Amino acid sequence: MPDPGPGEALIDIISCGVCHTDQHYQQGQINDDFPFLLGHEASGTVSAVGQDVTEVAPGDRVVLNWRAVCGECRACDRGEPEYCFATHNATQKMTLEDGTELAPALGIGAFAEKTLVAAGQCSKVRDDVDPAAIGLLGCGIMAGLGAAINTGAVKRGQSVAVIGCGGVGCAAIAGAQLAGATTIIAVDIDPQKLIAARTMGATHVVDSSVQDPIQEIRAHTGGFGADVVIDAVGRPDTYRQAFYARDLAGTVVLVGVPAPGATLELPLLDVFGRGGSLKSSWYGDCLPSRDFPALIDLYRLGRLDLDAFVSERIGLDQVEAAFAKLATGSVLRSVVEL
Hints:
The protein is α/β, with parallel strands linked by helices. The protein has eleven helices and 15 strands. InterPro entries: ADH-like_C, ADH-like_N, ADH_Zn_CS, GroES-like_sf, MycoS_dep_FDH, NAD(P)-bd_dom_sf.
């Protein structure tokens, strides 16, 4: 573990969620920069900082993010740092004892007692809230919340459908409720996930293993389709469902990560004729320095139940078992506590 260099911070990890993205790294679906240091939905305490670091100081409680903005690219220059085109991580590498460099998952690598990150990956937060709950904002929960609030721009009184009700999908449901949607339709093939979706704010549920989701979403929206449909799965079939389940001039948001090589075919006349917007949501289009503190305040006020996403608290030696539970859909998030 190198000492933090300019612009870097050393973090004592307190908690880290077990995310599907870690499993994708493990299975070689991201890239082949093995060996990886997994874990990225993390909260911790700053233990040391390098030169020129002003964002945080030793002793600060932080939630880590995987997009330290540059402040200088085209997006940042036009006042849209949430779209920063030159996000970065720590320059130095952590290593194994024999000197082998580790590739930290999403530039974080928090299945460990300490990790080295760019200081811009640290969002200073309150220390009087559950670190296991707020740490989940570091990836999947923020992606879902942001897909509804930031990308989908859900408004009061609108109808929203969410296809796929794992951690990201349930967070999108919570975000839709927070934004004031009055009809929120959850779609999944797993009855247990639909139960979880109800607890997060879904007003209607659709078991797409036995029901046509397009017909059911239209039935719950006066025959028109939803104003915003969020695809939290990222498969061609679920995206097609989202496309045809939205109202005219409605919005489709893709937040589920597609598999490499996946392709989509739609009639171009339908793309033109239905109007509206087709959007991709990368990390919920969030700006961590803005969004994390605001969402944590809503959590403290009882308006955002982050605790509900913590399905179990585990030790570092139970990560493999947590991956198996992800595959069965029996948990929203297992959280490692160090």
